[in-house]
Amino acid sequence: MEPFRVILLALAAAAVCSLDVRVATFNIERLGDGKLEKPEVVEILLQRYINFLNFSIPLGTPSLRMIQVSSYFFTRWQILDDYDLVCIQELTDEDGSSVPVLLGLLNEASGKEYTNHTSPRLGRTTYKEQYLFLYEPSLFQVVETILYDDTADDIFEREPYYVTFRSGNYMFTMGTIHVKPDDALAELIQFAPANDWVTENYGMQEFLLLGDFNADCDYVSGSDWDEIGLWTQPGYRWFVDNDADTTVNSNTDCAYSRVVAKGPDLQARISDVRVRRFDEEFGLEQAEALDVSDHYPVEFTLTV
Ligand SMILES: *[C@@H]1O[C@H](CO)[C@@H](O)[C@H](O)[C@H]1NC(C)=O
Ligand SMILES: *[C@@H]1O[C@H](CO)[C@@H](O)[C@H](O)[C@H]1NC(C)=O
Ligand SMILES: [Ca+2]
Ligand SMILES: [Ca+2]
Questions:
Q1: What is the DSSP letter of 250?
Q2: Which protein residue's CA is at the shortest distance from atom 6 of ligand 1?
Q3: What SS3 class is residue 174?
Q4: What's the CA-to-centroid distance between 15 and ligand 4, angstroms?
Q5: Is residue 12 part of a domain?
Q6: Which one from 43, 178, 206, 299 is the annotated catalytic residue?
Q7: Residue of the CA atom closest to atom 4 of ligand 1
Q8: Which residues contact 227 (CB under 8 A, 6 or more apart)?
């Protein structure tokens, strides 16, 4: 075959195989049964809600006929269904019973078939959290999971948790964390070494790192940044700026939720990163939005 034809075929194959998926990281504050018992929260997170504007048009003489007109007036799109893969922090449910409930509601409302993956329950005290991944198994399969082992020095309240997903022919490793606010600097300093530990022991070179880093405001500032390898090392690229506001509360302006990628191939696959201000989008009162979470999701496109 002529080289020209080979190149064309390769391009065509690449075009057919590459797919843009929407991904989000979302700290859903204290996600558990209580949260799912609030219909207004479920509606915002999971259910498409449509208000019809109904009006009648009189035709000819009043008694003759009226035409009933219904039109979509206002649609409140569910948040979670907008993503093919959602990485959630702060699942606090002790027995995990809220996960199938959440999944059932999501699948019913979206008509899709999401499934879940959960990390072990993490935390030093009886208060524990899990990382929760919701994804469509037709698009992603979990290949491997790794919990960073910090038993030697116990730096992390909730250790970084890595999930390698396969999507078609592409495999990527997503590492998530919910940094303890009061230990934010110490935990963030250890984050790059944790990735190096994964590389040394499991071989992954590139990482998609996301979650609630608490890397702003009272917890990390000024010269703290010089100590954080994840920030100073050239291999990492941060996709949410320090001046972003990922907090729902209008009194705080902090870039807590982040998306960072290590590795040039992975970095090139990330685009359209934005903080999703769902309160503005849906016209919610502050209190309504805060019932869902004190954090906004951060969303982006990943080309797989
Ligand atoms: C408007 O019409 C739609 C479709 O017939 C109906 O489902 C809805 O309940 C109506 N809304 C009101 C406020 O009457
Ligand atoms: C989905 O979540 C439930 C409840 O936490 C858990 O028992 C189950 O193992 C999860 N599924 C996977 C594949 O992790
Ligand atoms: Ca620990
Ligand atoms: Ca804010």
A1: T
A2: 52
A3: strand
A4: 39
A5: no
A6: 178
A7: 70
A8: 185, 189
DSSP 138: T
* Residue with CA closest to ligand 2 atom 13: 117
Alpha-carbon torsion 283, 286, 292, 298, what sign?
A: positive
Catalytic annotation present for 129:
yes
List pLDDT tens digits, range 1-42.
555 565 555 555 555 578 999 999 999 999 999 999 998 899
Measured in angstroms, how far is the CA atom of residue 171 from the centroid of ligand 4?
35
Closest ligand to C-alpha of residue 134 is 2
Range of the domain at 23: 19-50+74-303
Q: How far apart are the first and last CA of the chain?
A: 29
Specify the ligand 1 atom closest to the Cα of 51. 11
Amino acid at 242: N
Domain count, the chain: 1
Q: Examine residue 146 and state whether it is found in any structural domain, yes or no.
A: yes
CA of 206 to the centre of ligand 4 (A): 31
**Three-state SS at 35:** helix
Does some domain include residue 40? Answer: yes
Give pLDDT tens digits for 79-90: 999 999 999 999
Q: Answer yes or no: is 28 within a domain.
A: yes
